[in-house]
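Escalation from tier 1.

The customer reports that the assembly of two entities below gives different structure tokens on two consecutive runs. Tier 1 could not reproduce it. I'm attaching the input and our single run for tier 2 to review.
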Amino acid sequence: MASGFYFLYGLCLCLSLLCALFVVSWGLYWRGGFAWDGSQLHFNWHPVLMVSGLVILYGNSAVVYRLPFTWKQKKLIWKLVHAGMMFLALLLSGLGLSATFDFHRAFNIPHLYSVHSWVGISTVVLFSSQWLLGLAGFLLPCSPTWIRTSLKPVHIWMGKVILVFSLISCVSGINEKLLLTLNGVSAALYNTLPVEAVFVNFLGILIVAFGLGVFGILSVKKWQRPEADPENHVNYQPYHVSSQIK
Amino acid sequence: MASGFYFLYGLCLCLSLLCALFVVSWGLYWRGGFAWDGSQLHFNWHPVLMVSGLVILYGNSAVVYRLPFTWKQKKLIWKLVHAGMMFLALLLSGLGLSATFDFHRAFNIPHLYSVHSWVGISTVVLFSSQWLLGLAGFLLPCSPTWIRTSLKPVHIWMGKVILVFSLISCVSGINEKLLLTLNGVSAALYNTLPVEAVFVNFLGILIVAFGLGVFGILSVKKWQRPEADPENHVNYQPYHVSSQIK
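Tier 1 run:
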């Protein structure tokens, strides 16, 4: 049972690493590197930060409760790890958005015109709302049990929805950037499939494969953290339940 | 319970209709109409057939077992409806692919160069394999029960994966087509957000919203067709089980 999980989890970790390597290499090798100075290089942070935040960190944080070695440990610790990783993911995606807005301002390019940008901004808005609702519902000790119980299936479902949004945003963004940069240099260069295009198309495929790996882990019920764990439950009762016990 | 289902199902039907109206209007009003003659108009079938097949028909067929009024009827009838709708969806998407390949040949444009096309072709390949496996596993009476039992969760999971692929393909395709057509006429016209761009961006949002509606229906367990239905079960035993009964 656990071997199946660790195989898929290992695959996801390898795909995470490959996605990171591919997106950084794209910026370094083909797009001239990185800078935060309003130049063309400023934009190159956008794909790196979005893929790192919305895909790699988000996906790895989504499956953190599934790690069998954590099931004997207090759930609160892993809630904090999950929330912390998600916060970092949100921070990176926020920085990634600001990289593209700064670049647009510097080159007088209008913001939010493509369907990629519409889906992308919706992803970050949904993700921010999900994070704030998760914080209020599951981490603040004053939130009542009925809220936690009703919020949990919605939180899990919204988590998967946001990952679908992230995959759509990243793949459409890669397509857009390749069309704009390669075709901007010489007519229809993207369709001659230069090495950059093949390499970055593969990045798109790696991102989708990672997303599917995460969905695969989330879809297996026996890999869920067991709910019945009285010790941890007592350690993390909401306030009003704790006071009833006292 | 059923009212929640019918609300979401009604929403999905409305979104299906809107997606169809939007994608046909795009072709008719802004792209000059439709023809099957190797001209620019030949390509216009591509978005219409892909959205109709991979999104509208596929999504509606995925939720056909959830309709409460079908639960008292023989499951075999609804298996045939599901398989028939999926076959039609596959046929439309095959035609949609041929529209783009014909257009590329006529205008000497290379095939399968963008990440949209890579994800898109993977979607149709996965969909074809899923349909054939579904036919062999669930409709051919000679397939043994253990195959049906093991295949069912994989079939359901793959069905959702293919829908995610379809959404990625459609949104990235819309983005690509707008970048290639609008920017081909005057520099960076897409980023000035003409009416066509706003209209077609909304088509992308409608497609994503429809996909989420379908995922919403599929994620609610109490909306699943009840499994325990001995009458229907006897009516559709695989051959080897029927012979044991006799």
